[in-house]
Amino acid sequence: MSPDTGLNQVLRKLIRRSFPRLRQRIVTIGWGGGEELLYYMAHADRNMIVVNNWLRGANRRVLEGGIAHELCHIDADLRLGVFQRQLAWERYSQSRWYRMREERSTERRVIELGYGECLLELIRFARRLGYSFGREHGLLYAEALRAEALRASSSRMAVANRY
Ligand SMILES: [Zn+2]
Q1: What is the Cα 101 distance to its own chain's centre?
Q2: Which of 23, 85, 123, 146 has the most neighbouring CB atoms within 10 Å?
């Protein structure tokens, strides 16, 4: 994995803004290879996000969408105990159904946190690379679009209700 100041800035900004529980944790980031667009690994108390070299040409919002997704995974996993987390990872690697459920709930969380537009940009960018998103990767484009539209309209309503 090769570290990168730009990636690190995006990571720090996201943690500061939306992931208070991760402020005290060790999270590193860098470019790497493999088949996944992004993934994260954990060793003891260290979490490392790897961003595929394919995304080197991506703009900041695309990166924010992908990194926010990984931070949601880390945040959710840290709420589990060590044993539970191990069990969850085993299920994740063995069950397509479990993986699908995890990925979909992770993306709903990304949208709730306000990164829906970034997520949509990431999906569009990946499509242009020829990378196809299936249900195993999370929400389909149309589903993410609908969820984001819903969030945007309900947050407008929440603002209106304050008056
Ligand atoms: Zn994921």
Answers
A1: 14
A2: 123
Q: What is the pLDDT of residues 113-122, one digit of tens each?
A: 999 999 999 9
Closest CA to 73 of 47, 35, 43: 47
The label of the residue with tokens 């980031």 reads 29
Domain ranges of the chain: 5-161
Which of helix, strand or coil describes residue 123?
A: helix
Q: How much distance in Å is there from the Cα of 137 to the middle of ligand 1?
A: 6
Instruction: State the distance from the centre of ligand 1 to the C-alpha of 133, rounded, in angstroms.
Output: 11
The whole model's pTM is what?
Answer: 0.91
> Separation of 144 CA from ligand 1 center, angstroms?
14
DSSP single-letter state for residue 46: E
Cα–ligand 1 centroid distance for 73 (angstroms): 7
The per-residue pLDDT for range 13-51, each reduced to its tens digit, is 999 999 999 999 999 999 999 889 999 999 888 999 999
3-state secondary structure of 26: strand
Gap from CA of 107 to ligand 1 centroid (Å)? 8
